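EEF1A lysine methyltransferase 2
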Amino acid sequence: MSEGADDDGGAGAAARSRGGSPRGDGFSPSALGTREHWDAVYERELQTFQEYGDTGEIWFGEESMTRLIRWMQKHKIPLDASVLDIGTGNGVFLVELAKFGFSNITGIDYSPSAIQLSGNIIEKEGLSNIKLKVEDFLNPSTKLSGFHICIDKGTFDAISLNPDNAIEKRKQYVKSLSRVLKVKGFFLITSCNWTKEELLNEFSEGFELFEELRTPRFSFGGRSGNSVAALVFQKTELTTLGHFLEEPHPEGEQPMGSCFC
Ligand SMILES: C[S@@+](CC[C@H](N)C(=O)[O-])C[C@H]1O[C@@H](n2cnc3c(N)ncnc32)[C@H](O)[C@@H]1O
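Structure:
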């Protein structure tokens, strides 16, 4: 298992891509924003896991997982709260959540190899009751809804680098998030591509900042700052247009995250 330090573990640095010829949002399109890239990554990691038992990259390092779980403990999030890990990758964060006692957790990823890898890792850990699904978060199934907590570690970053209309995809991400998260539910995002101020702007519609989590600071050449932003948003009740954000569910369909509150 590669243990990134609590900087961005090397992986985050690779995702930062504001150089070159930026689009209007300042990001240069990158392979990191494509499904082909992630399929190739997780096919390789799946093979490595099968051969050597190595679970692969933990984005933003082990400390990024501890930081989120510490926040959940501090705020006494019930262990049966429904938690969704958006773009779960190898699912190692799901394993951590389960080890801390969370019992209603779901991981989604649009890469089938990522979900297969997560399943293999979860099985090896002897854990059960973790739900895994291949889902494109930009087009989520109606069943994916009713979550009390949504986690994003590097997925919004990846989507922001998509070469094909990333601005629209980011808007779609916010809409999907509004759909799957309960009113008053929490969204915990860790990002190396966006600053706090930029994230506040991206999630200004239907969400409000609840807390900023401490991340390591750097100091270089007389300037200082954070290499990673970690924020907790809370979903508000109404959009600025006065509409409720949660959508009704088709008759008889039980939302996946519905058992809490
Ligand atoms: C930087 S990796 C982070 C993986 C994991 N969250 C972690 O912290 O180790 C980004 C993940 O987002 C997934 N992803 C990107 N776009 C997605 C989308 N539209 N729907 C679902 N998953 C997506 C990728 O397949 C990849 O697993």
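The radius of gyration is 18 Å.
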